[in-house]
Amino acid sequence: MTLIKLGLLTFTEKLLRWCIHPRLRGRLLAILGARIGRGVRINEIWCANPVQGFGNLTIGDHAYVGQKCLLDLTGPIRIGSRTSISPSCSLITHSDPGSMFGNRLAMFYPRKIEGITIGDDCWIGAGSIILCGVTIGDRVVIGAGSVVTKSVCSNALFCGNPARFIKHLGAS
Q: φ and ψ at 100, to 5 degrees?
């Protein structure tokens, strides 16, 4: 990738943050290559690593992404319909101790890029962190401040660091 292309993508990402209206931000992301459903509201977010553009982002109908969320676009992120991502959440699609710079820890912890999938009708509590490779089923609540390191089943409440199963929610 050329430095010019990377510079343009970074500048575009900053312009998205300055966009005034949450629905307009969703429309702009769609123009830039993201797959954005109807009625999506996206507050001021930070799209990290848009090296491949914004095509790694898919958000279903009537979803909400709160302020100060970090979306790492190194790998694909899929957010289901009617899902709410509360403020200050981080969705991290890669892990790398610095392999490009010769960090010797990369021998033990090699670079990993894996997508994140969040199902329909989920609620991700404020300040939660979702790590690469995680799939969250439909109708899941992730408690505020949780760190989700492994995939979680549908119709359930998970909380903590690392996030643990708390209880089943009524299936409907």
A: -65, -20
CA-closest candidate to residue 151, choices 118, 104, 103:
118
- Ramachandran quadrant class, 53 (left: phi over 0; alpha: psi -120 to 50; beta: rest): left
Residue whose token pair is 């492994």: 150
Whole-prediction pTM:
0.87
Classify 95 as helix, strand or coil: strand
CATH of range 3-167; options 1.10.10.10, 2.160.10.10, 3.30.2130.30, 3.20.20.70: 2.160.10.10
- Condensed to tens digits (0 to 9), the pLDDT of residues 23-75 reads 788 888 888 899 999 999 998 888 888 878 899 999 999 999 999 999 999 99
